[in-house]
Fold these 2 entries.
Entry 1:
Amino acid sequence: MTPLLEAVDLHRHYAVRTGRNPFSAKALLRAVDGVSFRIQPGRTLGLVGESGCGKSTTGKLALGLIPPSAGEIRCESEPMPAAGTAAWRTLRRRLQMVYQDPLGALDRRLPIGEQIAEPLVIHEQAKPAERRERALSVMEAVGLQRHLLTRYPHELSGGQRQRVVLARALITEPRLLVCDEPISALDVSIQAQVVNLLLDLQERLDIAYLFISHDLRVVRQVSHEVAVMYLGRIVERGEAENVLAEPAHPYTRALVSAIPTVGSKRERILLGGDPPSPANVPPGCSFHTRCPFATAQCRSEIPTLQPLADGRDVACHRVHETPLRLVA
Ligand code: SF4
């Protein structure tokens, strides 16, 4: 099947100063460093990893909001047009973003009905008379009552505001939503409602999601496939049920071991230290400074993604030593 969206060897590098002095040397910050994935129509790819691993940058690259330093994004096999062009604006109707902070994503001075309909104005998609009806229709789809049309963001609860953000993203009838930590700013009681809404919308509207999150508990609920990022690279990707039930990469194993469970005696794997800076990526396997299984080979050779029998790919020199089980 033709993927809806495909990332091919994406890189996004930035030149950054190494000190506060404006004349200090520059280093290359490798925010995204050779990332590839596919998202099929109506499916969800969960993109997980610690803060600063490049997840959000990957989301922006996926929508063409920032250009890659190398590699490309393809939408239904066609290369992503350059940002700002008419072709890109046309494509963007079908690829929308849902941000982490609903209050920050909304204009406090505008009634929510106007904000929900705004993408129709930007994309010149509907006549003025139709926009109100389209806004009401999409509000109903996300469970917002009609009388809220004239309310302002500060008059709504956190859950209602995230529904407004979703309604605004859905009004152009997109095929893909990039959801960047869409529930992390919400109360725990509201998070489940928004997750259920996302699942329900996917079933009804056949939308695909790139679901970016550090919360594997939620990623497990919503994702068909999972890609785990560490320092700008994907270290493991595959079917969510395989990767999260039996993680193969030592980093994925540590992340999965931290998922709270009820009644399970799973041992928590604690990683030493913080991830290194993406402006100073260690040689070899970038995880070797925190990996309990690191060998001399790990410190000098970059592992590439290798396929395992269950269809997943894992970037680890030692993954084949014993199937899915590393021996220290
Ligand atoms: Fe650990 Fe080596 Fe595998 Fe990297 S390649 S995850 S350092 S065992």
Entry 2:
Amino acid sequence: MKQQRENFGSRAAVIMAMAGSAIGLGNIWRFPYILGEYGGAAFILLYIAASLLVALPIFFAESVIGRRSHSNAYGALRKLAPGTKWHWAGILTIISPLLILSYYSVVGGWSVQYLFKSLSFDFTTGSPEAVSSYFGNFISSAWQPVISHTIFLSLVAVIVLFGVRKGIEKFSNIAMPVLLVLIVALIVYSLTLPGSFKGVTYLIKPDFSKLNADAAAAALGQAFFSLSLGVGTILTYASYVKKDENLIVSGLGTAGFDLLFAVMAGFAVIPAVFAAGIEPGAGPGLVFETLPFIFNQMASQAPVVSSVVSIVFFVAILAAALTSAISMLEVGVAFLTEEKGMKRAPATLLLAFFTWLVGILCSLSFGPMKDFHILGLTFFDFVDHLCSDWLMPIGGLVFTLFVGWKMKKADVRDELTNGGTCNRMIYKVFYYLIRYVAPVGIVAVFLTNLFL
Ligand code: TRP
């Protein structure tokens, strides 16, 4: 007999889980430094435009496919377009989230290690030299980061093992409110530091001179990554959404929270960076290099406060990373359990094991394997670029074309308006965006990345 399919218990649970997937390292680790690179507030405007015109339409396309079919990414395309080749694209979306997870888990592992370091007060009691050089030494060592990656991925697997209701929904319901409280606390702290005001000006004052094609591509890439698009994550989560839920409300809610958390992370990090007298052009090292240095500096005046703040900060990053990582693993688990008849436990362990192996290579590429290059990139960067530049845009394109051109318009309308009972105007706008604007936007950015 076919097993009863699980679903999310309430609208709040849907938004919490989807926002949990969306809000992650992309918001706390990536957004603040990209914001710095591309002109602060001006970039936010561009980001909102990219979200509304391209990212949200993809989000809705995935939502429609998922909820209409109540299936995993592969099964969904097969069910909705039987006898065609569309479901081959579904296979792609089983593999891509696992690839993303393999390097995401490495960075997730760093946050595990940094939490341990904070808990043992290493950042606040160590010498400034030791703290400054820690990141480079840590990621280039062989074993430590692999162990951290293993711990992180094990946590992810355990949550996914518990299933949709008892694992994903329950964990997101706890982690997301906690994350909100922690970030607000960090903002308050950051803004009370002397000299932090320069950071606020930096974030608020728009610098339109930095807005060019590059910035637009970065905005879209960030929106794509941040909303977990193009690899069937949102599709899979939407397949657990009940028929009477409002997909447009969940989508707008998720995107709204996602942006809010990204901006809040900016306000938690950047003012503290300015207060420490550092330029925020620090790039990817911002969170793992600059912040520990700041915690160390502040410890000379307020050791207890700065120790607590460092713990809070890395708990927050870890919570955010976990709720995203579980969404990546769930895509493949849904596929194996529904299409291959596997039980949840072996399916989860099998995929976690595969991800673990690829992740080890990603992790080693900062150390023992740093001279191993594919197309001129380290293994970590190669997987990252493969996913961000190719797999995610291709997936996004497939989903928008499927919903915009392959599915019956009446079916799409039925999903987005719940049988014509709500969102009728918004639906019209988004149908147009899904059909024309989003595919063109994706292709444009894809070509820009390829040739510029
Ligand atoms: N959105 C998450 C973040 O910002 C990462 C993430 C989760 C993701 N699932 C995804 C990225 C699927 C791409 C595709 O950290």
